[in-house]
Amino acid sequence: MPGASLSRWTLTYFACALLCLVGAEALMVMGFGFPGATIEAPETLILVHLVAIGWLSLLMCGALFQFVPVLVARPLLGDELPPVALAFILTGLVILLSGFAGMTGLVAVPAEAMPLGGLLLLLGFGTAILSLGRTLWAARPLTMPARFVVVGLAALAGTALFGESFALILSGLVGGEAALSLLLNGVPLHALLGLGGWLTFTAMGVSYRLLAMFMLAPETERFSTSVVLATGTLTLMLIAAATPFALAAESGLAGMLLAAAVTGLCALGVYGSDMLALYRQRKRRNIELNAVAAIGAFAALLAACLLLVFLLFSGSLPEHVGALTYLFAFGWLGGLGLAKLYKIVAFLTWLECFAPVLGKRQTPRVQDLVDERHAAPWFGVYYLAVGLGTLTLLVELPLVFRIVAGVQLFATLAIIRHLYRARELLNVPPDLRRGFARPHPFWPQPIARKLP
């Protein structure tokens, strides 16, 4: 992966995503949104979209701009589009959140602004899909991980369309029985396509490649991986096919969602066995912190699946969907994101600063850019806080949840500090970094920059 192939906007996406994560966790500490408000309240909608769009979606887009070319061994087509997409997404997110805030009376923004925010988000994600889609189309036939990304991008398009539909309905610009029925019954479809399709399915595909690459595990395409792709795609098709039932408020919606839950759990089960095989077959005896920390994310995914099954059988899913979503978003998706960021930031920084002179002078290893001994405990604190936070939501202790959320925020800030230290080369011995300027903190340069 030569230095010229670095996506100069990936670190910008990551920085914006981390700011949104810190903001969302700070809101939870202050008691803003769920569980202090209902799951349908505008305050909760602000929190949910700040996490889903601001944190997780920006993180995923930034990672894809860098690693889709790695998945398909071709350069990114339309490399001028990432900053355009970022501008649309950030502007749309601010307007959408302002519209939600206007519904609560926090700001004087009319509800009619929400469709504009949704439209800008559609344009932003559409621009990202255009760049990534062109790259994937030109690389056919696709590798297995790349096929996961294609399905994930399709789910992103569906999620964004659902979101704009809800914005039009909430603003009062679109009405009627079908619109009201979609608003009342279609929110689970919107959430499942977003968290389950766009974010989870894409993360699954990328993890097959990145974990194998970073742990030196075999990258052969297993039959089980094809099973995951097929059953996962079927799950998302069932969710999308449930849309007419949501529009008509027909009883078949529950059956479609139950079928999607069964196939989805099967896909996740086989995926888990594939990840376990990667860890067992790795050639790197002592795995790095990013792979160790990812185990916590996989554990959170398993816990979320078990909790879903329990809630379905007990009939208490509607009462505890907030706790399940919190565990899924912060434990599985957020935990995996932070774990991989710990490696990716150091990896991209090393490529930018030291790869161009490899073999010409002494250079540090990628591991020399990080301080795993001091960073590792903070990942443990983060996962512990998420686990305790889930428990407090299940037993309905909102005040205790705010305290635990404070611990989660502190752990997140500590991890971000380690990312900053890696980016600024602060862990590299002075004699090895002498002669190189520190890279820009927000995006990597395509070539190394030597000090005069």
Number of helices: 15
Poorly predicted regions: 447-452
Give me the count of strands. Answer: 0
Strand content: under 5%
**Mean pLDDT, as a whole number?**
93
Q: Main sheet?
A: none
What is the general shape? globular
Task: Give the oligomeric state of the chains in this entry, treating copies of one chain as homo and distinct chains as hetero.
Answer: single chain
Alpha-beta classification? mainly alpha
Computed over alpha carbons, the radius of gyration is 22 Å
Helical proportion, percent range: over 70%
Cα distance, first to last residue? 27 Å
Please trace the helix and strand order, writing H or E for each element: HHHHHHHHHHHHHHH
Outline the fold blueprint.
Blueprint: H1 10-29, H2 42-72, H3 81-104, H4 113-138, H5 144-170, H6 177-185, H7 187-215, H8 223-241, H9 243-248, H10 252-280, H11 289-314, H12 317-353, H13 372-394, H14 398-423, H15 430-433
Helix pairs in contact: 1-2, 1-14, 2-3, 2-4, 2-7, 2-12, 3-4, 4-5, 5-6, 5-7, 5-8, 7-8, 7-10, 8-10, 11-12, 11-13, 12-13, 12-14, 13-14
Transmembrane segments: 12-34, 46-72, 84-109, 115-136, 148-169, 189-211, 223-247, 253-279, 291-314, 326-354, 375-394
Organism: Devosia ginsengisoli
Keywords: Membrane, Transmembrane, Transmembrane helix
List keywords for this structure.
0% strand, membrane, 452 residues, mainly alpha, disordered C terminus, 74% helix, transmembrane helix
